[in-house]
Design goal:
The complex is a heterodimer of chains A (249) and B (252).
Chain A lengths: L6 H21 L8 H10 L1 H36 L1 H14 L4 H12 L3 H25 L3 H9 L4 H38 L5 H10 L3 H29 L7
Chain B lengths: L1 E8 L9 E8 L4 E5 L6 H8 L7 E6 L2 E2 L7 E4 L11 H12 L4 H14 L15 H13 L5 E5 L7 H18 L2 E6 L2 H7 L2 E5 L7 E5 L14 H20 L1
Parallel strand pairs in B: 3-8, 3-9, 6-7, 7-8
Antiparallel strand pairs in B: 1-2, 1-4, 4-5, 9-10
The chains are: A mainly alpha (249), B alpha/beta (252).
């Protein structure tokens, strides 16, 4: 019989939920600490606005932000790999940029772009492009010097070395970057919505807070987590199917 | 076939020359081994032939033509098989041909098939390298080197990472391949017995910088078997070479 590796984690999570359920029941203040069952109930009650209006708004933000981050991250990683001067110039600036608290800058973006989608997209991009760039850059560098030399002895040019060696070598890193970036992009979009929006799960959660609806605050958060977990699972599945050689390089 | 004419080379990080006015010649169809202690510059010679390093002075000729501005004049097989794990064995073998762009897809598939047959890996073109044993991977790497289409093969300690039994069977296999393919082979090793078993001539790196390679003809014709190594003249040459290497190792 195949052993379920997730079983200990599942048991632990279930135990935490039970503690939470009984703890919250004892506190008996649903407006600040709802029980897990109350949250699920509220999620069901709010399904209409959550799934038809706010989830699509957040996913649009996340999707656009992630797409821009991927394009930007891939481009920067390739440029830094190809041009040592670009690496020396950009890499330290990028590392330094990560010390800036993006969430603190978000109100500024709201001032610049108003309540449009672009203030949220910008927060998402700023949070996610960095892990994509750095991880992919490491991936491009993971191609062994010996293999590059071998390609040279075959008469390969830089273009062929990139497409036949470096790019495939970087693929597992790309998947790792995606697994990191997707939850971060959802968080980025939610933070942006929290600070200034007219729709989205972040915005909805904040609206519920002003109404002292504890379960209503948690419901969109649970939904966001579930979405992130589902997408990461899909990426992991694709990775498993496509990258059968991880660790062989 | 291969000629070094007064070749000098120095690594940027070193303050001494690795090669100084080195000249030697390998004839077409020869199997020549280069032996020397670790760090004596054996691989540097190979890297210069492959143009992975550039010589400071002198000239390297292959078929009486300078290697400058040339591609595809030698096939290089490194110590590790360096098969790309994301490619199947067949796709790995196609790699040099894909880069040279001299064959159609059908021709490449046909060549891969026939070369795999030659090296005893028939029907394994769709396997991933991770599904092969160490010896099979080296055979696949050798097949890939053959498919560069070059008559000059540079084999850089290709069997050193294999276990003893696999290594000796791979040596016997390599001799068969060489006798059939009639390629010129330059083989780097630090194993004196391996050099004696395989080569018609052994070149010894005696000192640093390398100013000359001391050449020894192996007193045994082809075809050979393991027992050839026990002939008195082979044993005597073996002792002589070991003494030279010991002396060199103390110098480095």
């Amino acid at each position: 019989m195949r052993k379920n590796n997730n079983l200990p984690a599942l048991i632990f999570t279930f135990a935490l939920l039970i503690i939470w359920q009984f703890g919250a029941m004892k506190v008996n203040a649903a407006y600040i600490l709802p029980t897990p069952l109350q949250i699920i109930k509220r999620l069901w009650e709010l399904r209409e606005p959550l799934f038809t209006a706010h989830l699509p708004a957040t996913m649009t933000c996340t999707g656009i932000g992630l797409l821009i981050s991927i394009v930007l991250g891939v481009a920067l990683a390739i440029i830094m790999d190809m041009f040592p001067l670009a690496e020396k110039t950009l890499y330290p600036v990028m590392i330094a940029s990560q010390t800036i608290p993006t969430t603190a800058l978000a109100p500024l973006f709201v001032m610049w772009f108003g309540y449009t989608i672009w203030s949220k997209v910008l927060v998402t991009v700023l949070i996610t492009f960095f892990p994509i760039t750095v991880t992919l850059f490491d991936g491009l560098r993971s191609a062994k010097t010996d293999m590059i030399d071998l390609m040279h002895t075959f008469g390969a040019n830089d273009y062929e070395i990139f497409f036949k060696l470096k790019l495939p070598a970087a693929l597992p890193y790309f998947f790792s970057a995606m697994k990191m970036a997707i939850p971060m992009s959802i968080i980025g979009a939610a933070i942006g919505e929290w600070l200034g929006a007219t729709a989205g799960l972040g915005y909805f959660s904040r609206r519920m807070m002003t109404q002292l609806d504890g379960a209503g605050v948690f419901a969109p958060i649970v939904l966001l987590s579930a979405i992130a977990m589902i997408i990461v699972s899909i990426i992991s599945y694709l990775e498993k199917k496509l990258i059968t050689w991880r660790g062989d390089l | 076939m291969l000629e070094f004419k007064d070749v000098s080379f120095k690594y940027d990080s070193d303050d001494y020359y690795m090669l100084e006015n080195l000249s030697f010649h390998i004839n077409k169809g020869e199997f020549v081994s280069v032996i020397g202690a670790s760090g004596c510059g054996k691989s540097t010679i190979f890297r210069l032939i492959c143009k992975l390093l550039e010589c400071e002075n002198g000239q390297i000729l292959v078929d009486n033509q300078s290697i400058d501005q040339r591609k595809g004049y030698c096939g290089y097989m490194p110590q590790k098989d360096l098969l790309f794990p994301w490619r199947t064995v067949g796709e790995n073998l196609k790699l040099p041909m894909q880069i040279q762009k001299t064959f159609t897809k059908e021709q490449m598939t046909e060549k891969v098939k026939s070369t795999l047959e030659k090296v005893g890996l028939s029907g394994l073109e769709n396997k991933k390298p991770s599904e092969l044993s160490g010896g099979m991977r080296q055979r696949a790497a050798f097949a890939r080197t053959l498919l560069t289409g070059s008559d000059l093969l540079l084999l850089d300690e290709p069997f050193s990472a294999l276990d003893f039994l696999t290594r000796i069977s791979m040596q016997e296999w390599l001799l068969e391949q060489w006798e059939r393919e009639h390629k010129t082979v330059l083989f780097i090793t630090h194993d004196v017995e391996e050099a004696l078993f395989l080569s018609g001539r052994v070149l010894v790196i005696e000192d640093l910088p390398i100013k000359k390679l001391v050449s020894f003809d192996v007193p045994c014709g082809y075809p050979r078997n393991r027992e050839s190594l026990t002939k008195p003249e082979m044993l005597s040459l073996r002792e002589q070479l070991i003494k030279m290497l010991r002396r060199e190792a103390n110098l480095i």
